[in-house]
Amino acid sequence: MDMLSFESSNSSKPLDLNGYISMQPPVHAVSSTHSEVKIKAFEEFVEEPLNSESTSSSCWSLKFYQPYFDVKTSTVLERLQKVLVPGGDFFEQERPDMYGPFWIVTTLVCAVTMVANEVEDQKGYHVSLLVWTAGVLYGLGIGVPLATYCILRSHSSYFKFVRLLSLYCYSYLPFIPTTLLSVFLAWGWSLAAVCLAVLWSLVFLAKQGLAAVEGLESSQRGLLSAIVLGGHVSLGFFLNWYLVGKKI
Questions:
Q1: E strands within the chain?
Q2: Residue 15's beta-bridge partner residues?
Q3: Which band of pLDDT confidence, cut at 50, 70 and 90, is reported for residue 69?
Q4: Domain check: are 50 and 163 in the same one?
Q5: Contacts of 126 (CB under 8 A, 6+ apart)
Q6: Which of 64, 89, 94, 155 falls 20 to 30 Å from 208 in CA-CA distance?
Q7: 169-201 burial by CB neighbour count: b if 16+ within 10 A, else e?
Q8: Helix, strand, coil shares of the chain as percentages rounded to 5?
Q9: Does the pLDDT of residue 200 top 90, yes or no?
Q10: Same domain, yes or no, for 205 and 158?
Q11: pLDDT band for position 67 (50/70/90)?
């Protein structure tokens, strides 16, 4: 090798003050931290919200959940109407919200507590009744969608936890007028009204969940139906205990 070829082969590499060829270390892609991986997994679990500006926030902060409550009033009213008149796609390619479900369950808790005290002809309101009612309604509202998600997660990417949670809590809407009307109804009519609300709510859930259960095995479909039906039957028994049982 002559001197000319040697110089041309090294002309592109700068020399430092000591005459050595400086070598740049290879650039490696920075791997995501453990916390970022956990946040990403949690976001996939709860689904992308309506407004995804806070996806960089920690899942333990309130800012992460704020977009799920950022929803138009017209969207909530449209979804309430679809519960009363079941049919069609409930979300229509839009992201689920938690604003409507939160206030539906909270309103139902307040309504059951108020009506139960009126039925018992008690003066004042007992905190224990409010806590017990909130524990049952919120427990069923979260527990049933969570159990449903565990069955559907490997078969349907459409139904993620927040979507199931939103859908299930919206189905509580028929129980609110039923609870309020039970004050003026005899025990037989109150019982019929609660049963009608359970049936109405189940029809709504069945129409919205038919596409999700098509690929399931018969055993899984039966387990899924038992979970949803059991949750609504438990809710019906709970309402009958407070709204009907005290009248007999």
A1: none
A2: 21
A3: confident
A4: no
A5: 117
A6: 64
A7: bbbbbbbbebbeebeebebeebbebbeebbebb
A8: 65, 0, 35
A9: yes
A10: yes
A11: confident
Answer yes or no: is 9 within a domain: no
108-135 residues labelled b (16+ CB within 10 A) or e (exposed) = bbbbbbbbbbebeeeeeeeeebbebbbe
User: Half-sphere exposure (CA, 13 Å, Cβ side) for 157?
Assistant: 2
Query: What pLDDT, on a 0 to 100 scale, did the predictor assign at position 178?
Result: 92
Residues 119 and 215 in one domain: yes
Q: How confident is the model at residue 188 (pLDDT cuts 50, 70, 90)?
A: confident
Predicted confidence (pLDDT) per residue in 105-159, tens digit: 999 999 998 888 776 655 556 677 888 899 999 999 999 999 998 888 777 666 7
Mean pLDDT value of segment 221-245: 87
Judged against a pLDDT cut of 80, whether residue 244 lies above it is answered with: no
- Alpha-carbon distance of 218 to 88, in angstroms, equals 25
Residue 204 CB coordination number (10 Å): 22
Give the domain extent around 41. 33-70
**How many domains, in total, are found in the chain?**
2
Residues 112 and 225 occupy one common structural domain: yes
The answer to whether residue 184 sits within a structural domain is yes
Based on the domain organization, do 128 and 49 belong to the same domain? no
- Is residue 194 in some structural domain? yes
State whether 221 and 168 are in the same domain.
yes
Please state, in angstroms and rounded to a whole number, the distance separating the CA atoms of residues 204 and 140.
Answer: 17
% of the chain surpassing 70 pLDDT: 66
Q: Note whether residue 24 is domain-resident.
A: no
Give the SS3 label for residue 246: coil
H or E, element range at 9: helix 3-9
